[in-house]
């Protein structure tokens, strides 16, 4: 009793001091009340706008000890005032990020509130919540300073950390450790915004999620989760969606077993494995998990279809239309794969046909495991390097272009097409401004290049060194993005800085090119329909073909090619004129590729069979 009263006294005293300090120091140490307690931040001025910053605000209990591999728990309320002047630690990752300490105690968010005069006095500001990328295995909210976007856009910007790698995504594929804790962290942070942002002058009914790469995939997974109805209104996916290759691990138990074995668990039982893995020190676990992170599109510590947070395959969920109505803005960079040309990454090491073949297989094998070689050949044909044996530049270009289309672009357009078919508002962009860099001249805007124009200080970038044209692009993009957050339409409210009207993506499939010196000519129609078809329909079909004896024994199938039929049917059902045209050309091409594949693939088989069967039963038609 006494104890309690004294703490109330203390609290009153602190609030009293606070009131004094505020009147003394002006508004340099602004405070805001949240459901768990009061926080005190700081201010800064960007582009002549005063921004209140609240950094390192806890939104969930530290996921330590027995809370490891569990969904986030409600944060404990505090008395008095919590200082919110420093970013929270980054979530555990390995290798360690530069200059940002890591800790398992990392569930913190950051709020950037612009002091702007709103048109109507009682109007609340729209809120933009950023989810960072990094393959679900690296990076931190501290890399994304939201001050600029808050100042230019006149919106509240929130960034958050979420558990990464094994800490965020370990799964046994059952209820023991269902996985997706990192996604649930994001969800808890969004819920925090919903519950508290009113006290910051924000509109709890105008929350927009945005994210890049794995962050974009996260955003679309939050959209697809049935648990988030009413939690947010709009979404922006930059260069990554739920169905991008490698965003979901279909066999998490295998990875958990491999990790456990590496750490000498001596058990295969899910419950025991998780018990052991909870006791391993955070550092040791982070380092061990990094050995099983996977390369290219093989990703191990990623979201899973847990039947709960993520009930089903993303494409199926969208086809079924089982998603709440929200506005979606999404897009990609013209030459996503060009980032692989940087030193230390695969594109850089392609020096001849052998390294080309190696990296092609390594990139495609995990998504197309059955007929990888046929897929690699089809890529060579589609991307024009089929006749090249020694032209390194051509081989590098094929590899990086193919990787960008395959890993990011096709799936983004697949999502755009599925979403607009549900008649929900969709806006599509292609970002095309390539910065001066060390990349070859043919390289266009690479993965993550658009981030400079939303977070001008990202990756050590100095905004003072950006050209006037680039600063104009900063202003345009921030205005489109924040407009979308305010109204669900990037063009509204009208602002003379906007270079052109951004058409909605409908059956006429219009989009805009985001680049410097935009004009009305920056709007275009039909964006990569052929490559989208190639990667989302044709290659899956090609890979699903098998030359197993069971199939070839089936005489009923000898005169038809079910795979080709399916392809043509799909084309017709889609009812897109543009794709119909493509189907015809591609069908011919595919017959060729399939033909070659099956001859190669079944050569051994047919030789064996020739010795066992009548000649009459063995014809090429059996395999074509
Ligand atoms: C794949 O990653 C492992 C470590 O996770 C590494 O040892 C191996 O060299 C990588 N392979 C390729 C093809 O980069
Ligand atoms: C392709 O890559 C996979 C996985 O790294 C490997 O197991 C397989 O042997 C490779 N195939 C070829 C033909 O190099
Ligand atoms: C390969 O074919 C392309 C056209 O598809 C042509 O431009 C290129 O010069 C050819 N390269 C070689 C080595 O024949």
Automatic annotation (TrEMBL):
Domain Carboxylesterase type B intervals: 29-519
Transmembrane feature ranges: 577-602
Family assignment from sequence similarity: Belongs to the type-B carboxylesterase/lipase family.
MF GO annotations: hydrolase activity
SUPFAM superfamilies: alpha/beta-Hydrolases
Protein biosynthesis in keyword set: no
Gene (name only): NLGN3
Cleaved signal peptide residues: 1-26
Record organism: Branchiostoma lanceolatum (Common lancelet)
Record's protein name: Carboxylic ester hydrolase
Name of one Pfam family that matches: COesterase
The entry's keywords: Hydrolase, Membrane, Signal, Transmembrane, Transmembrane helix
Leading EC class: hydrolase
